[in-house]
Design brief:
It is a single chain. The chain is α/β, with parallel strands linked by helices. The chain has 2 domains: 4-124 and 282-312, 3-Layer(aba) Sandwich (Rossmann fold), CATH 3.40.50; 129-277, 2-Layer Sandwich (Dihydrodipicolinate Reductase, domain 2). It has 9 helices and 14 strands. The strands form 2 sheets. Strands 8-9-10-7-11-12-13-14 form an 8-stranded mixed sheet. Helix 2 links the parallel strand 2 (29-35) and strand 3 (52-54).
Length: 321
Amino acid sequence: MKKIRLGILGTSEIAFRRFLPALKKHNEFEYIGVASRNIEKTKPFVEAYGGKGYSSYDELLQDKNIDAVYIPLPPALHFEWGKKALQAGKHILMEKPFCVNLQQTEELIELAKERNLAVHENYMFMYHKQLTKIKEIIDSGYLGKIRLYRIAFGFPMREKNDFRYNKELGGGALLDCGGYTLKLANYLLGDTTKVVCSNLVKEDFEVDLYGNATLQNDKGMTAQVSFGMDNAYKCELEVWGSKATLKALRIFTAPDNFDVNLEIIDNNGVTNINIGIDNQFYNSINYFKKCIMDKDIQNITYKVIVKEVRYMECFKVNRGI
């Protein structure tokens, strides 16, 4: 079987530290090279992983030996380079968020449809096996009737020059950690999920620093989500049932060597369920491969990406941003 030949736009840390080690393990992909506006920045990639260093993003996109591209650029650049990649006939694996607004997202999705190209948004946590186990426990009735989902993802202040705090680069808590919480809420509540109320706070920044929301489905099941970029660290899901409560304390960011455990708390105390290790980055790459190979999965993914951006648009309407 012919391998999918892939290049990377940008020399980001996540591409070097997480993406390429996972990609190298996948025998259906072939890594071709990485592009930067500064060719010197490609040298560590070439030394560590091989491949070619390209002196511009356009040079990489013009390479006919490349079938697909991974785009880990700041969010404000996703639309421009996602569009150029699709116009060049490349499938795209886009770091989250797919784009910074609904209009840009819909334009890229329509272009992908016209050209029969796959797109995938890299919310890796969705492909960790702990999520499948959590859903099995919920569906089994072991927790009783579900009363509430609580989802939180936040981290301490990073360096002031981090793109997350820069409006021009597509920064803001909603587009960064907030997207995780909304995606998980939608997964748990189902297709009828709606944002009931939402709040974003900027404080002394030009971007939103933290926020929260309540989401519900047509059965009245509720999820409360919170997120922020100047917070004590949290990365957790709590499922509160009528019989027991489930807690997952590394729901979004479990590294591939992290031994995941779930907690179930009831009147008898705390029970730990060992999930073990899993490589969610590899699993996300594997899903991207399925998008490329399977037209039905490709079409489902188009719809999912647009739907997720619609949730974010609710925040912007409610806060006037």
